[in-house]
Design goal:
Layout lengths: L23 H16 L3 E7 L9 E7 L2 H16 L9 E3 L6 E5 L3 E7 H7 L1 H4 L5 E2 L4 H12 L2
Parallel strand pairs: 2-5
Antiparallel strand pairs: 1-2, 1-6, 3-4, 4-5
Length: about 150
């Protein structure tokens, strides 16, 4: 059985040209969480490979929303999407739901941060982890919309 921390040699960061340290399960969880956030109109979605810097998780998924209700909606969508995966992933810990300004979902392999836009700007997690590789995420709906646009006369 392969080591769960095995590198995904096929996942190259096109910007940095470096191999990612994220394992396959973490990658699948991160992409599913990012897509669920995108489906709820989250803004500035980023997936960061923090595996070489942190022993506690492989990736952060960070998304923003303009109000507390949207933060809650995005969090709910992420939880619903990940529990529908074959491994039925559920967070081992969640924080910040009461205030609704910054909700953290800890899935061990990934940690999801859904932040109000103001908190995202103030805490600047993207800048804090700027030395870590960014994992490319492309919203499925944007790809489908682009494909539909190219078929039009």
């Amino acid at each position: 059985m392969p080591d769960p921390r095995e590198r995904l040699d096929l996942l190259l960061n096109p910007i940095e040209g470096t191999l990612l340290s994220i394992n396959e399960r973490a990658y699948e969880l991160a992409m599913a969480a990012a897509q669920a956030a995108a489906d709820k109109k989250a803004q500035d979605i980023s997936v960061i490979d923090v595996g070489d810097q942190l022993a506690i998780t492989d990736a952060f998924v960070i998304a923003s929303a303009s109000n507390e209700r949207q933060v809650a909606s995005i969090v709910d969508a992420i939880e619903e999407a990940l529990v529908k995966l074959p491994e039925k992933a559920k967070p081992v810990r969640r924080e910040g739901e009461r205030q609704g300004r910054w909700v953290l979902l800890d899935y061990v392999d990934i940690v999801v941060h859904v932040q109000h836009t103001e908190e995202r700007e103030f805490y600047a997690l993207d800048k804090l982890w700027k030395d870590c590789p960014v994992i490319p995420f492309v919203d499925r709906d944007m790809v489908e919309a682009g494909a539909a646009g190219t078929d039009a006369p």
